[in-house]
Sequence to fold (163 residues):
Amino acid sequence: MIVRRETTGDRVAVRRLVGTVLSATLLDGLRASDAWLPTLSFVAHDPDGEIVGHVAAARGRGGATPTLALLPPSVDPDQRSRGVGQALMHAILDAADALDETLVGLVAYPPEYFGRFGFRPAEDFAVVAPVADWQSSFFVRPLTAYEGGVRGTFTFPEPFLRV
Ligand SMILES: CC(C)(COP(=O)(O)OP(=O)(O)OC[C@H]1O[C@@H](n2cnc3c(N)ncnc32)[C@H](O)[C@@H]1OP(=O)(O)O)[C@@H](O)C(=O)NCCC(=O)NCCS
Fold:
């Protein structure tokens, strides 16, 4: 399996996969928004070049501070429990860290999968979910550049609010 940045040629397969696993509407909305960050969209493909996984992060804010909002990994149902999700998570978190991003926010249903990647309940930090009902599913992952100054309401890109 190879994990690499998404290219234009991957888009149809990525949309099909994310549409099956999460929401094509969310993906389309993010891509069309100012929040989309092409450098932080990753795919996993098998030796034949078939796309088996995707993950991305878009621009969010914690109070006034730029943060990242994670579009959670989508893994082909036939390829699960083989480490694809884990490889994608390490790729995107390492890339975000290298870009000096501070904090990654995530709303996860269910959230259990993400603790192993360093995500912690947002109430451990000074950020709150933009929608009260999200708080119990809202997790954040501090990166190396995080110095504690991110506080206030965590703003997700608008397409997340329409899901
Ligand atoms: C969650 C997901 C990304 C994991 O991808 P994956 O490639 O199968 O994951 P990995 O191979 O890296 O890890 C597998 C392990 O993760 C854990 N795991 C997988 N899905 C999980 C879930 N929904 N909740 C908790 N733990 C989970 C299991 O412990 C599994 O171990 P097992 O092989 O002993 O069963 C994938 O199942 C998926 O695309 N799910 C649909 C979307 C989803 O539920 N997203 C999560 C919340 S938004």
Q: What stands out?
A: The longest helix spans residues 84-98. The two ends are 30 Å apart (CA to CA). Residues 2-161 form a domain with the Aminopeptidase fold (CATH 3.40.630.30).
